[in-house]
Structure formats: C-alpha cells, structure tokens
Amino acid sequence: MRLEEAIRKMTMEPARRLRLWDRGLIGEGMSADLVFFDPEAIIDKNFYLEPKVYPKGIKMVWVKGKVVLKE
Fold first, then answer.
1. Are 12 and 21 spatial neighbours (Cβ–Cβ below 8 Å)?
2. pLDDT tens digits for 11-54?
3. 21 near 14, Cβ under 8 Å?
4. Which of 4, 15, 51, 58 could be stapled to 24 by a disulfide with Cβ–Cβ 3.0 to 4.6 Å?
5. pTM
6. Extended strands (E) in the chain
7. Where would I find the beta strands (DSSP E) of 3-57?
8. Domains of the chain by residue range
C-alpha cells in the first residue's frame, strides 16, 4: 500500500464515517490535526509493559492548530 493511501485510510475515511466534517483533510476552516514525520525513520518503540513510549521519527504534532509535541 502506498503511503498516501495508508494516510487516507487512517484520516479521511474514519472522519467521514464518524461525520467529523472538520477532520481528515487539510484546508481552510478545518481543525488542523497534523503529524509531521519522517517516513524513512519512523518506528514504534512502545510495548506491553511501556505503552506510553513515543515512536521515533515523529517531528511535530498539531491538534486543532496548536503544537502539542515537538521533538
């Protein structure tokens, strides 16, 4: 599966099914939930005993247009 298709299946499709009309797309008037990541470096580091360990390769996260995580 191409990266673009995977992102669409994780963002736009669930937002539409849940009728969250301001989510799942980037555009004016949208909520701006964004994740800036390096697709070559991203790797999940958490496991059962430590579920809150952040993955590597995520540079920044925005929720409703505000930075909530910055590497």
1. no
2. 999 999 999 998 988 888 888 889 999 999 999 888 888 888 88
3. no
4. 15
5. 0.74
6. 34-37, 58-63, 66-70
7. 34-37
8. 1-26, 32-71
